[in-house]
């Protein structure tokens, strides 16, 4: 039997410990047929085989982005990006151009607006935005998506100009004049405005309420599917063959399932059940476990529980062990009580569902570790692969607890202030210098025995894995006496391939290139090992193969 695709003349990094390097790979159907030397693999090519000469470039297992948001990211591809925009005039020009180009949008939405977009000291209010655009509703969202700023007409139409109680950990910030000042903190505060957008804010529900949109017309659903398809194609163009979507609602699962059944998903998707603090514990058995049974293929699976323990540092909604450095007396408020979270972790694990929790501050991280410990005490030591998302600050006492509890660190090399174009302030002042050594401390965690996966949290940060890998390899400490958190190229690649497959319980079929494994492969435009770390982002995928099917072919010059 001949191979369907042979890639040769490559520097293959298989990520397989036993045979780490090879020159050629043969694929047949949706599986890897053989991996080895050029001469040996070329004998598997027949007259119908597509033979690809990699020209000495790197070939890897397809990237597995361990934490992103496909629906919001797909929608954001069509919205205004304020990435790199700084100062009132630049913001004003960008928004005015976007408004002029989009005369019919019911709500103008801009993404990736830095907390310090105006200046390092001035916080945005509705009055600034009114000076840019006053006659059409406008909202801009921070890179972390936990904070948004809206102009007066948007607040008015959303019915929140007079303020509203939006629950613990959420806030419509009020001004001295007794009206909302334009800043909206966390999803409950943002949603009333987001609902006015052309998508009705449906892309925010999976991560926001965990619920499904109501009264969706068939036209709206079809439009949402088209948006998702664009996002999926974008993932494939970046060499991604798997991602772990952190949005968990049935609406997205069913749309992705329909895409898989009608033309095929070009990327494998893993999704969670999103548990919120108002949901009864019985939902875990009735919904989460039921979804796990219903969506359980190598292309689309729903086999974990996601929740939020806190918010973000810049919004003062992250939870710390000690007070915020700039605000004595304030540590943040957790979204779950310790008792409630322990019960969720224990019950989810009892049902065989691993848990992934957003925890930014060291106080939130500690509560999650406590919950995983409670689960071990109740359920015994099972192979649970629970994880913590972000871990922006970890308390030194908690570092060994990752290895002790088998907790996976899911971190984003694009997130440290100073990386990927992010401003240093207000972050560094808010956490204070004493906590700097324990911020985004991925090397410390790895050295202490934690398993690590890397991702971008797209659309919070730009999605290209090669840019993210570049950020990981070139991260600069905030001061000379701060630890160096860079990992090696191989450790970084493993966090994007082998370990992320393991996290999904799919290490027996993907994440490494070896015979019998799923044919998920990316061919790069050059040799990543011979490229200096600062130039890795200039490499690009030239061929992406997922499940044996070519999902992207670039003009990379070869
Ligand atoms: Zn996220």
TrEMBL record:
SUPFAM superfamilies attached to this UniProt entry: Composite domain of metallo-dependent hydrolases, Metallo-dependent hydrolases
Matches recorded under InterPro entries: Amidohydro_3, Metal-dep_hydrolase_composite, Metal_Hydrolase, YtcJ-like
Keywords: Hydrolase
Molecular functions per Gene Ontology: hydrolase activity, acting on carbon-nitrogen (but not peptide) bonds
Any single Pfam family the record assigns to this protein: Amidohydro_3
Domain Amidohydrolase: 50-552
GTP-binding as UniProt keyword: no
Protein name (record): Amidohydrolase 3
Phylogenetic lineage: Bacteria, Pseudomonadati, Pseudomonadota, Alphaproteobacteria, Hyphomicrobiales
